[in-house]
């Protein structure tokens, strides 16, 4: 099993797909990494140790991935919250940040419905 940037890549997948398991690398970046490392498209289990090393070197030199990227994103969000900009306030309140409507949707950010109001008295 290949281990790159602290992530175990699945051995039965093609290399370009398996590289997307690393946080911060998507499909486009994975193809760029393989081109720079001069590695052909094949399954992870067919990679040699030398090819894995070259892929790892390209990722270390060009990309911010995994823990460092997560830390950077977290500090960026904290900075937005500290300066009380609109996006920071939305993060604090747990509401959608990018302008989506909240009257009917946004259940992912807001959580399950909470009924507000009181029941009618039955007489």
Structure description:
The model has no long low-confidence stretch (mean pLDDT 93). The chain is mainly alpha-helical. Helix 2 packs across helix 3 and helix 4 crosses helix 5. A hairpin with a 2-residue loop joins strand 1 and strand 2. The chain is elongated, with a radius of gyration of 22 Å. It has a two-stranded antiparallel sheet with strand order 1-2. The chain folds into 2 domains: 61 residues, Helicase, Ruva Protein, domain 3; 44 residues, Ribosomal protein S13/S18, C-terminal domain (30s ribosomal protein s13, domain 2, Irregular), CATH 4.10.910.
What's this entry about, in short?
The chain has 123 residues and is mostly helical.
Mind telling me the CATH class of the largest domain? Mainly Alpha
Oligomer: single chain
* Proportion in helices: 40-55%
CATH architecture classification of the largest domain: Orthogonal Bundle
Spans where pLDDT lies below 50 across 5 or more residues: none
The number of distinct helices, counting runs of at least 4 residues, comes to 6
Sheet with the most strands? 2 strands, antiparallel
Please state how the strands of the largest beta sheet are arranged side by side: 1-2
Distance between the termini: 71 Å
Give the overall pLDDT as a whole number.
93
N-to-C SSE string, H for helix and E for strand: EEHHHHHH
